[in-house]
Design goal:
Two copies of one chain form a homodimer.
Chain A (H helix, E strand, L loop, with lengths): L5 E3 L2 E3 L4 H8 L2 E2 L2 H11 L4 H4 L3 E5 L1 H9 L4 E7 L7 H17 L3 E5 L1 H7 L4 H17 L7 E5 L4 H12 L4 H8 L7 H11 L4 H6 L4 E7 L3 H10 L9 E5 L27 H9 L9 H7 L7 H10 L3 H12 L5 H33 L4
Parallel strand pairs in A: 5-6, 5-8, 6-7, 8-9
Antiparallel strand pairs in A: 1-2, 3-4, 4-9
Organism (chains A, B): Fermentimicrarchaeum limneticum
GO molecular function (chains A, B): ATP binding; tryptophan-tRNA ligase activity
Family (chains A, B): Belongs to the class-I aminoacyl-tRNA synthetase family.
Chain lengths: 372, 372
């Protein structure tokens, strides 16, 4: 049952066929061996790896080989701050924090408020405001403030521009068009933007003269940006950035696509009061049958159940418990309300913890955010 | 005798037919009435106006009407710093200084080192270096340092970018392509650049919240940039910038096209030792005949003579003297060597004065140049 799907950095629609994406983008699946390497260094295997939420990569094997020979790597990831942070956004950041702790890497975190201004109906100051707001969630996700710099493109553009010019000089409209699907109606700001987004991949080398690799943990839809950075890296004497890619956490109203920050009901925001989050989770799309009687007789469809996916990827670490939910659902022994309540409890507990860290982050954020 | 000619901000080739340019660009010739208005305000008519070196405009009449009603205007001009400054570059700056004194306007002067890096084989730091070097000539050209800000795009990009984003969001690739002739091989930096170059036209309003008009004195080939700025101005609540345009001072080796900074022998640089400048002028292309005998018998061709044009536009204020040179040339009464010597004396005197002011400018330049 394959549907048409679209994945580019501005759009993820339809049911995402990740196997097909891996093939189309030409990335590699994360091998057991690579996952083990991370585990050994980290001391524990992250749930996101074990459950395949992080599932593919580009040259992560090279980064690891270099690392074993003594060449460090920095981390780079980012956020398009067009609104509040939701749980889906947190996934790469939590994973980045895990990698940062395991490998002691410095993190460069880019807030692409310029991109959001150029592509959305959002004001420039509003977008910059979201950069500062969302930065609280980045810190709350667990990154090490002493080894992290977060910057808004708008506030750090003097520095970024010097690097972006090096990139932009070597990227033709043809190339940008082929990768991002630009048309004649694309605005000239967004046509330049791929150079801006590629730049942090070279910051450690260019600004700090460090001979390091760069690894980018992010959702799979961001891969095209790094293809530009990778293509021009050798032309400017830089190592090609590598990527490690996640799937999307589905929105509460269906398993296809990614959680949308603009559809209030499909997303749980990091700032939602737990009671509101609970209400949202209780309204989730599940694989339940039309009636209780039917559910008990025929069992549910956990395959299409958002609640199951959320537990699987993010909220239930215990394989046995998860298996039990699946089996009992199939057998009609458990009803959707019970699963939703279980998930809601987990989500609320997570939010409470996150919100505490988020509050604490308010004291640190202006130290972590760098400006020109 | 019309030849094919090309005029865009990156290229001026062949014999320039200014009448045709005025028609093609859709600009207006400078009327007697407008010239008189400037003269009344300035107290004297500038040679460049009297001799038609500044010859056309876009909405300068509107600027003047507004001015008479009490609405001030700021001045904006700039330079692509890819090398040393030559005499041709000085023309708009000298004229800008004249307008600045007459109208008391603040001047925003942009050094487009980013553009030069993107379009030429010049390093980024090298281009920024030329920004600072060329700024000495801007000051030496007579602008008022207390009412002037000069900035390098690379060094002031944080501020410029905020304005450029507003512009870029409203300019499609189609539009930029139509105006600048971009192709699929154009790099994505230069595609964005029109937004950068349009930005200073809105600085007074956006940064200082002043309700003023903006007038851009420059060579006619820069007009396309202001068309972009003019098109989007109403969309962002700004007045349309106006322009006042000059012809090009021809290079020493021929009257077609503009003086090229990259052809050492065709240009006199502001830093040339007078002896070198003299040598260059003595090698100028003239309308002289093959032999002295022929010249004396048939007379010369001042119509194609660079020396005559230089005297006409820049170095001989006295109409009678100029007329005498012309007539005596036609009649074979004067030989090219004499004219060249006369011009060389004038050029050397000009250089000596300019170089003194340039030296003095070294003390002021870092105060006039603003950075993020």
């Amino acid at each position: 049952m394959q549907k048409k799907f679209i994945v580019n950095p501005w759009e993820v629609k339809g049911d995402v066929d990740y196997d097909k994406l891996v093939k189309e983008f030409g990335v590699q699946p994360l091998s057991e061996e690579l996952i083990k390497k991370i585990e050994r260094k980290a001391g524990e295997m992250h749930l996101y790896l074990r459950r395949g939420l992080f599932f593919s990569h580009r040259d992560f094997d090279v980064i690891m080989e270099d690392y074993e020979k003594g060449k460090e790597f920095v981390l780079y990831t980012g956020r398009g701050p067009s609104g509040k942070t939701h749980l889906g956004h947190l996934i790469p950041w939590i994973f980045t924090a895990y990698l940062q702790e395991a490998f002691g890497s410095k993190l460069y975190f880019q807030m692409t408020d310029d991109e959001k201004f150029l592509m959305r109906d959002v004001g420039l100051d509003e977008a910059v405001g979201y950069s500062h707001d969302n930065a609280l969630d980045v810190i709350a996700a667990g990154v090490d403030p002493r080894k992290t710099v977060i910057f808004s493109d708008v506030e750090y553009m003097k520095t970024i521009y010097r690097i972006a010019l090096q990139v932009a000089k070597r990227v033709t409209f043809s190339t940008a068009k082929a990768v991002f699907g630009f048309t004649n109606s694309s605005n000239i700001g967004i046509i330049f933007f791929p150079a801006v987004q590629a730049s942090p991949a070279f910051m450690a080398q260019m600004l700090e003269k460090r001979d390091v690799n760069c690894l980018i943990p992010c959702a799979i839809d961001q891969d095209p940006y790094w293809r530009i950075a990778r293509d021009i890296a050798p032309l400017i004497g830089m190592p090609k950035p590598a990527g490690i890619y996640s799937k999307f956490l589905p929105g509460l109203r269906g398993v296809g696509g990614k959680m949308s920050a603009s559809e209030e009901q499909t997303a749980v925001y990091t700032t939602d009061p737990p009671a509101l989050a609970r209400k949202k989770v209780m309204g989730a799309f599940t694989g339940g049958r039309a009636t209780v009687a039917e559910q008990k007789e025929r069992g549910g469809n956990p395959e299409v159940c958002v609640v199951h996916q959320w537990l699987y990827y993010m909220f239930e670490d215990d394989d046995k418990k998860l298996r039990k939910f699946w089996d009992e659902c199939k057998q009609g022994k458990i009803l959707c309300g019970e699963c939703k309540k279980y998930l809601a409890d987990r989500v609320c507990r997570f939010l409470e913890e996150h919100q505490k860290r988020r509050e604490k982050a308010k004291k640190e954020v202006e130290k972590v955010m760098i400006k020109d």
